[in-house]
Amino acid sequence: MTLGNRPGSGPRTALVVGNWKMNGDFAANGSLLEALRASIDADLLARVEVAVCPPYPYLAQAATALRDSGIALGAQDLAAYANGAYTGEVSAQMLADLGCRWAIVGHSERRTLLGETDATVVAKAGRALDAGLGVIVCVGETLEEREQGREREVLARQLDALAPLAAAEATDFVVAYEPVWAIGTGRTATPEQAQAMHAFIRERLASRGFAAAARLRLLYGGSVKAANAASLFAMADIDGGLIGGAALVAEEFAAIARSAALA
Ligand code: PEP
């Protein structure tokens, strides 16, 4: 649905994105993609944008399976470089070539496990936008940072690094708030906790020159399931979700998309 007939906000079409992480194989993906096609139909897609982000080796499989379905394709990451001698890397242009609409950058697993810095994240996001992809930039605090009362300070640092992208189109620039303590843990932020952080994110981006801040989609991610999606999506500044584990179960993922459409 179109969210945002609220004071200070512009129209925002809900967006639900599945991050498959390093899961699946050719056979399992085939079944999942087929089930997604069957349960996410044109009526639903008229009210919510839906995308799935499989691992790189399966992007071509997903592009074929989702052709003309209206479900978009995204990558979980991309290179910070345009092209050249970067063994193992995948460029934004290659992803566009494969039919990707979106790229996720700055996921906490990459920031924490692979040492990605704010500078790397903004470089990758810039490459994605330059290649015509939409970008989903993940931000979020760890449990320790929240317990120290530093969640806003951490988000401010992560968001301020994005200032060079302030001119990005609202259709193509999305921020996902993913508290690290809620990812894959079964522990979800309460709708009120998430809303407070989303409002902070929108204000911070506006103060850093994002003229389109009121129209940017802000997704919540962290143990979203069919059972808790509706209460999260009912919040004024939560415009959809970035879904991990539940994105691997077609019926769960479709139910989450339906919740976003009804919010
Ligand atoms: C994620 O990894 O982006 C995520 C939100 O995972 P989960 O839904 O499994 O917590």
CATH topology: TIM Barrel
Distance between the termini: 7 Å
Strand percentage lies at: 15-25%
Share of helical residues: 25-40%
Low-confidence stretches: 4-10
What quaternary form is this? single chain
The main pleated sheet reads as: 8 strands, parallel, barrel
Tell me the radius of gyration.
Answer: 17 Å
Overall geometry: globular
Q: Give the full name of the CATH homologous superfamily.
A: Aldolase class I
With strands numbered from the N-terminus, the spatial order across the biggest sheet is: 2-3-4-5-6-7-8-9
Structural write-up:
With 263 residues, this protein is α/β, with parallel strands linked by helices. The chain has helices spanning 26-39, 42-45, 59-65, 92-97, 108-113, 118-130, 143-147, 151-160, 191-207, 226-233, 250-262; strands at 2-3, 12-19, 48-53, 72-75, 102-105, 134-139, 173-177, 217-221, 240-243. Helix 1 runs parallel beside helix 11, helix 8 runs parallel beside helix 9 and helix 10 packs parallel to helix 11 (250-262). The N and C termini lie close together (7 Å). Phosphoenolpyruvate binds next to strand 9.
Task: Name a few traits of the molecule.
eight-stranded parallel beta barrel; 39% helix; 17% strand; binds phosphoenolpyruvate; 263 residues; 11 helices; alpha/beta; TIM Barrel
